[in-house]
Amino acid sequence: MFDAIEDGMGERRPTSEPLSARADRQPQRRWSLHAKLGLIAAVGLGAALGAAGAAFVSPIAALVVALIGSVITVVVARAVAESIGRSLLDVGRQMRRFGDGDVSVRMAPATDELGTVARSFNVMADATSERIVSLADSARDAIHLRSVADALEMARDEDDVYRIVEQSVALLTPHNPAQLLVADSPTRFRSAAQHPSAGSPGCPVSNVDDCPAMRRAQTMTFQGPSELNSCPLLAEHEEVCSAVCVPVGVNGHLLGVLHVAGREGDPPKPTTVDQLVSLAGVVGSRIGSIRLLESSRLEASTDGLTGLANRRKFERAAGDLLRDRVPFSLVMADIDHFKRLNDNFGHETGDRALQLFAGVLQDNVRGHDIVARTGGEEFVLVYPNLAPKRTIEVLRRIQIALAAALDRAGLPKFTASFGVTDSSVAETLDDIVRIADAGLIVAKQSGRNRIELADNGLASSVFSREAKDAPGEPLIDLSTSPTRSPITSGSDHDHSLSENG
Questions:
Q1: Longest dimension (CA), the chain
Q2: Same domain, yes or no, for 141 and 209?
């Protein structure tokens, strides 16, 4: 199987190389450059010695021998030069191909000095090809990450973010189960997204403190449950697996963990892990931005004391109903004798009264209804597609619910008055509110704890009298107003306004 081989000068040397490998290599062997030059010198020297020897015999013979030797020397030298030239041309041709972008070009191995050049070129070409592949991979990863970042910038809410996460992990790890666990509280996880085709690895973690990656705030790779330093929860997976756990956070605040599983002993490769870390970074940043924006919007549109919508949010929502031509009833509500309550029992009790009343109102609206605190002890309710008559029935239930809530809370007793109108009475929200406010004024003037239905006629009477500003006189003559329609908490008074729903 093993034999000796003959080198370029005809000498034999032992080798342990298999004959099959030598057979593949033999056609590529060439004489070294030194050997070729030595051959030329030997031929020339032989011709010179021959000519010198012939000179002792005959001058003519010496001349003939010298001429023959010179011809042979020239022929051999030319052949050697052509051989070297062809090799150099081949080297140059291969280098030009590589320079033109054919990174697969490699030179045939040889034993002469040009073979050394070929080997050096091949080493350089291999290293360059690897670098090009690495740069191409990095460029592809950067393009993918940029597209993910662009998609996340267009995400309107967290649900959009979770959808983008699912699409991204499908591209990064086509066959690895993956899931995004989000910490909805300091202690609890929930699964927010999973691989669309490979599914979820089903990590059993539910408590944030039980996740090593969250506790350490660093990416962790586990070969499998049998490893000494493995995550204890891997043993609880339905299938034996490896895992990579990448924390998702923003500005040092952890929001969750991206969990990707693989076969035991074969977790995602380091390059894939780097991509997952980059994905987790942009996802965490976007979730943080969305939550900050939502928090800012909430603060800008929410009453801090009661948690109800504030005037700005009410005006925006009611304005949308008007633009969309959705009919609605509007109610202005006000706690009776609230200043007296504050003065007698203190501002803390007053705040509790406001919160309790807000809770009663909130419990008596539908999901698409609007309830807001517009300032002080004043509140507004908007009931889309609900006629005033049905709205008054709801307000009677609110009066009953308020009394029951006060009994349970142990707060001082108080009542509330309500002015009701509907969106057909005016074209603008300001005018609709003004008419409902006229009903509230009449309810207050009529003894409080009342519900008053208002229209344009009532509003004109109330505000024309108010404009006169006559001290000591009622704002309106309740006995003579033709449009007044008082409703106490226990009356079954009929109303002329039509029902919308």
A1: 165
A2: no
